[in-house]
Amino acid sequence: MLMHCRGCAIPTLRGPDRAGITGHMRLIDPKHPFFQPAWRRYLLVAAPFAWAFVELSFDNTIWAYLFAGIGGFLGWTLIVAWPKDGAE
Known about the structure:
Strand content: 5-15%
Order of helices and strands: EEHH
Oligomer: single chain
Helix content: 40-55%
Number of helices: 2
């Protein structure tokens, strides 16, 4: 059953359809096994920054800022806020 959470307009799953989902869906789920290898996380952060440089070299500043923002978000989520060893 789809309901609205308290104080916001974002629909959330409640009741038997919930199937173990807690809170709101995250854009990037760092607990997913895909993100466990460190090299993959660093590559996923470097790729948007590299593309931002390409866009900037062609004077597409809006696209460059967009991809730099995506890289910054991924950097924060996958590197800075990544749980340290032994912390879960």
